[in-house]
Design goal:
By secondary structure, the protein is an alpha/beta fold. 33% of the residues lie in helices and 26% in strands. The chain has a 7-stranded mixed beta sheet with strand order 2-6-5-3-4-9-8, with helices on both faces. Strands 20-21-24-25-26-19-27 form a 7-stranded antiparallel beta sheet. Helix 2 packs across helix 3 (63-76), helix 2 packs across helix 5 and helix 7 (195-203) packs across helix 13 (378-392). The protein is globular, with a radius of gyration of 23 Å. The protein starts with a strand and ends with a strand. It binds alpha-D-glucose-1-phosphate-6-vanadate and cobalt (II) ion. Alpha-D-glucose-1-phosphate-6-vanadate (VG1) is lined by residues 18-19, 113-114, 277, 281-282, 321, 344-346, 363, 365, 367, 486-488, 496.
């Protein structure tokens, strides 16, 4: 087999965002784009010679073709071994687990997560490290530097391999092993949760519906919920992965999982509903007539995790991303355990998990997880909830009501303004940033600012500092707003406004969140001038 050096030019302005590099699919398919990026990852991480990698993706358009290209580059660069999910499929949590289990040096996960798929939609690639977690900012910077210095792509002149055939195959000196993408993950869940208790719950008549959104979790959910726990096959919705996710956004929230939400809020609702995203790392939890915000889900899990066998020893500590509500902080305070506040993005949890300082962590964007892997994990959260329900015998709504009675309720909502003109969004943020110091003491739409800052984080393990991670505004009466720009979009800018209002127990804990947060939303618009600057009178998506 021949190895060729293909001359190429440095990439410019391809800085990866919150989670890997996301671009339009056609950009990824353009000559040498993917090739450049993969070679830069190898160059920026000390080369591939003698190394082992995990490779797979969420099945979106270009997934399989991209895998064939990456295999040729890995072979060209002297990699020793590559473990690939059958059919090119691996959920993000399954890939993270495989990297750890096999002692791989790293992994390539092909996904743009919850972004739509298809030739005219989005594609993405994230590189995960030997701990199974997303590349840190330091490693990302090294990859970006390599991409700016790149002159050649080293590729094996090899034919495509059959991604569907389980077993081993060689590309030159490199061994490729095609494995069942589900089996190892299933075994891990079996270790963490009492699946027999969940099976008994279901056998006793408990009903559920899981929406895989035509993305990667279909096969995982079938193996776990139907085959292992005995749920009826029609408990699964949209369980066949499709290259375009059936034309939808594989984003598990009340807006994009509207069918499931309609069912759960209607007269024929099953006991439990859940959904996951494109690559299987996000989750939505809904009880009959009761949507659980991701921030509340994290808090409830932190409170009750000890009911699951993998967490019986208790929690070392917890962490949440900064925009996530403070609900989990209240649980941590009551338990006397540490609670860390990190920037948005799972990569910031890695060091805390690696050093055993936290057991659980989560984000408001439907991500929850633990130290079992180094990514958030959609089906893990579903099984955790089912395990808690099975042990307590309480419904989702009753569990949440009891939680609020103990800890109070952090009413919460995120407002997204999508595809805003990038320059307008940048000016809006810069202007507000420049005025932060003058805001405390001033009132906007009747709410007085008590504190304002631009969030910066110093990693307690490696000391690295990340600045400009979101503008935080605290208001009198226990309200907080955060403004930041998305790092995962592929067109224009997405402005995210995170709204939170604490109502301490025994206050009114069963109000409509939209009503509770309306004054805060008005105050944010007054202070930041969102409608005036963007011309938008309402957000595109409220979750
Ligand atoms: C969004 C979320 C963030 C999450 C990231 C990746 O980032 O807000 O919490 O970590 O997506 O999620 P941003 O920069 O657009 O706000 V996913 O499921 O890619 O892996
Ligand atoms: Co995802």
């Amino acid at each position: 087999m021949q190895i060729r050096d293909i001359a190429t030019a440095p990439m410019r302005g391809q800085n990866a965002g919150t989670s890997g590099l996301r671009r339009k699919t056609r950009d990824y398919m353009a000559p040498l784009f993917l090739e450049n990026y993969v070679q830069a990852i190898l160059d920026g991480t000390g080369g591939a010679a003698g190394k082992t990698y995990v490779l797979g993706g969420d099945g979106r358009y270009f997934n399989a073709a991209a895998i064939q290209i990456i295999l040729r580059i890995l072979a060209g660069n002297g990699a020793d071994r590559v473990i690939v999910g059958q059919g090119g499929l691996l959920s993000t949590p399954a890939a993270s687990h495989l990297i750890r289990k096999t002692g791989a040096d790293g992994g390539f996960i092909l996904s743009a997560s919850h972004n739509p798929g298809g030739i005219d939609a989005d594609f993405g690639l994230k590189y995960n490290m030997a701990n199974g977690g997303p590349a840190t900012e330091t490693m990302t910077a090294a990859i970006v530097a390599a991409s700016e210095a790149i002159t050649r792509i080293r590729m094996a002149d090899s034919a495509d391999i059959d991604l569907d055939a389980l077993g081993a195959v060689a590309i030159g000196a490199m061994q490729v092993r095609i494995i069942d993408p589900v089996a190892d993950y299933l075994a891990l869940m079996e270790d963490l949760f009492d699946l027999d208790a969940i099976a008994a719950l279901i056998a006793g008549g408990f009903t559920l519906r899981f929406d895989a959104m035509h993305a990667v979790t279909g096969p995982y959910a079938r193996a776990l919920l139907v085959d292992r726990c005995g749920a009826s096959p029609d408990s699964l919705m949209n369980a066949t992965p499709l290259p375009d996710f059936g034309g939808g956004h594989p984003d598990p929230n009340p807006v994009w999982a509207a069918d499931l939400m309609g069912l759960m809020m209607g007269p024929d609702a099953p006991d439990f509903g859940a959904a996951s995203d494109g690559d299987g790392d996000r989750n939505m939890i809904v009880g009959r007539g009761c949507y659980v915000t991701p921030s509340d889900s994290l808090a409830l899990i932190a409170d009750r995790a000890e009911l699951a066998k993998g967490y019986r020893r208790g929690l070392a500590g917890v962490a949440r991303s900064m925009p996530t509500s403070g609900a989990v902080d209240r649980v941590a305070a009551a338990k006397g355990i540490a609670c860390f506040e990190t920037p948005t993005g799972w990569k910031f949890f890695g060091n805390l998990l690696d050093t055993g300082q936290i057991t659980l962590c989560g984000e408001e964007s439907a991500g929850t997880g633990s130290d079992h892997i180094r990514e958030k994990d959609g089906l893990w959260a579903v099984l955790m909830w089912l395990n808690i329900v099975a042990v307590t015998g309480q419904s989702v709504a009753d569990l949440m009501a009891a939680h609020w009675r103990t800890y109070g309720r952090n009413y919460y909502s995120r407002h997204d303004y999508e595809d805003v003109d990038s320059a307008v969004a940048a000016v809006l943020m810069a202007d507000l940033r420049g005025r932060l110091d003058s805001l405390p003491g001033q009132s906007f739409a009747g709410l007085r600012v008590t504190a304002a800052d631009d969030f910066a984080y110093a990693d307690p393990v490696d000391g690295s500092v990340s600045t400009s991670q979101g503008l935080r505004l605290h208001f009198a009466g226990g309200a907080r707003a955060v403004l930041r720009l998305s790092g995962t979009g592929t067109s224009g800018a997405t402005l995210r406004v995170y709204l939170e209002q604490l109502v301490a127990a025994p206050g009114d804990l069963h109000q409509d969140a939209g009503d509770v947060l309306a004054p805060l939303a008005a105050a944010v618009d007054a202070v930041a001038g969102i409608s005036g600057r963007t011309g938008r009178t309402a957000p595109d998506v409220k979750t």
